[in-house]
Design a protein that fits this description.
The chain is α/β, with parallel strands linked by helices and about 325 residues long. It is built from eleven helices and 16 strands. The protein has two domains: about 160 residues, Medium-chain alcohol dehydrogenases, catalytic domain (Quinone Oxidoreductase, Chain A, domain 1, Alpha-Beta Complex); about 150 residues, NAD(P)-binding Rossmann-like Domain (Rossmann fold). The strands form three sheets. Strands 3, 5, 6, 7, 8, 15 and 16 form a seven-stranded mixed sheet that branches. The longest helix has 21 residues. It holds the Pfam family ADH_N. This is NADPH:quinone oxidoreductase. InterPro entries: ADH-like_N, ER, GroES-like_sf, NAD(P)-bd_dom_sf, YIM1/Zinc_Alcohol_DH_Fams. One of its GO terms (molecular function) is oxidoreductase activity.
C-alpha cells in the first residue's frame, strides 16, 4: 500500500513516499481504508525526534495521527463495527500510521464518523477534539459560570476547545490576531485578545482554567492569570513525571521529566494553582461523545486547507508555518473524501 514513512529523525526533513505491507488485523482490530488523514503539529514533532525518548518508535514508521475512512475487515472479537461502516479515530500512540491507504486499529479507539461531516472534515477532528475533551471535561471538569482561557484560538485545538468550553457554560477568553476576531467570536469566544499588540496577563485575572499551547514565557504568564485553586493544563510542555508513568517510561526518563518540569510545578505550588501536562490518548468512547455534539450542531470543525495525499510533505510544512486557521487534511481517496 502507498504510505508516507519516517526513516530517521531529522528536523524539517521530508517523509518518504513508500510502498508498505498492508497492516495485520488482530482479534480486536478493525482494518480501515483511509479516505482522509488530519495533519498535526504532533506529526512534525515526532519527525523531528522530540518524543524519541518517551515514544521509542521503530523506524521506518508510517506517520499520521488522525483518520477517517471505511471499515473493510474486522477481527473475530469485534462486535461494534462491521465492513462498510464509516468511522474516524486517533489511533493509539503505539499504532499511528494514518498517512497510508490502510490502517489497523483496536476497536476501543474507533468511533462512528459524524454523519454531518465529509471524510475530510471527519479526519480533522479526532486528535484536537480528544485533546479539548480530555483537557476541559476530564481534567479540568469545567462548570457553568467558570472562566476559561484558551490560547491560540484559531489553531486546531483552539477552534474546538472554544466551542466545547462555551457548551460547558464557561466564559471563554482567547488570543489571535485582529484579523481573526470575527472568526473566534463566531465560535463562542467572549474575550478576544490581539496577541500582537496586547499582553493577556494585563487583561485576564482570576481565571479558573487555562489551556496552554504556547511557549514557556506564555506558560509563566498563564499561571499568574489563574485564581487560587485554578488549573493550568499544558499540551506543549514541559512534560512531567506523571506523564512518564502513564506511558510506562523507564525510571531515568521519569526522573528527567521530573527535573524538566520542576520549576513549573514549584511556581504553580507557590501561586496555589494546579499544573497538568496533557498528552492526549486515543479513546473511542469519548470520540463518540464528540460525534454526538457535532451531529447536534454544538461543535463544528474549522478547516483551513485540504491537500492531495501526494502532497503530504507540503501539508506538514504548511502546518509548521503556523499560518493555518483550523485544521489541515490530506485526502487519500479524494473522490470519496
Amino acid at each position: 500500500m502507498k504510505s508516507f514513512t519516517l526513516d530517521k529523525y531529522a528536523k524539517k526533513s521530508s517523509l518518504r513516499a513508500a510502498e508498505m505491507p498492508e497492516p495485520l488485523v488482530g482479534d480486536d482490530d478493525v482494518l480501515v481504508e483511509v479516505h482522509a488523514a488530519g495533519v498535526n503539529v504532533l506529526d512534525a514533532k515526532i519527525r523531528d525526534g522530540e518524543f524519541k525518548l518517551v515514544l521509542p518508535y521503530r523506524l521506518p514508521l508510517i506517520m499520521g495521527n488522525d483518520v477517517a475512512g471505511v471499515v473493510t475487515r474486522v477481527g473475530p472479537r469485534v462486535q461494534k463495527f462491521r465492513p462498510g461502516d464509516e468511522v474516524y479515530a486517533r489511533p493509539d500512540k503505539d499504532r499511528i500510521g494514518t498517512f497510508a491507504e490502510f490502517i489497523a486499529m483496536n476497536q476501543r479507539d474507533v468511533a462512528f464518523k459524524p454523519t454531518a461531516l465529509t471524510m475530510a472534515e471527519g479526519a480533522s477532528v479526532p486528535l484536537v477534539g480528544l485533546t479539548a475533551w480530555q483537557a476541559l471535561v476530564e481534567q479540568a471538569d469545567v462548570k457553568p459560570g467558570q472562566k476559561v482561557f484558551i490560547q491560540a484560538g484559531t489553531g486546531g485545538v483552539g477552534t474546538i476547545a472554544i466551542q466545547l468550553a462555551k457548551h460547558l457554560g464557561a466564559t471563554v477568553a482567547t488570543t489571535c490576531s485582529s484579523t481573526s476576531f470575527d472568526m473566534v467570536k463566531s465560535l463562542g469566544a467572549d474575550v478576544v485578545i490581539d496577541y500582537k499588540t496586547q499582553d493577556f496577563e494585563t487583561i485576564l485575572h482570576d481565571y479558573d482554567v487555562v489551556l496552554h499551547s504556547q511557549d514557556a514565557p506564555a506558560l509563566q504568564k498563564s499561571l499568574r492569570v489563574l485564581k487560587p485553586g485554578g488549573t493550568l493544563i499544558s499540551i506543549s510542555g514541559p512534560p512531567d513525571h506523571v506523564f512518564g508513568g502513564e506511558i510506562g517510561a523507564a525510571w531515568y526518563v521519569r526522573l528527567a521529566l521530573r527535573l524538566l518540569s520542576f520549576g513549573t510545578r514549584r511556581k504553580a505550588r507557590r501561586l496555589g494553582v494546579r499544573f497538568f501536562f496533557l498528552f492526549m490518548r486515543a479513546n473511542g468512547e469519548q470520540l463518540q461523545d464528540i460525534t454526538a455534539l457535532i451531529d447536534s450542531g454544538v461543535i463544528r470543525p474549522v478547516m483551513d486547507k485540504v491537500f492531495p495525499f501526494a502532497e503530504t510533505n507540503a501539508a506538514m510544512a504548511y502546518v509548521e508555518s503556523g499560518r493555518a486557521k483550523g485544521k489541515v487534511v490530506v485526502t487519500v481517496k479524494p473522490n470519496l473524501g
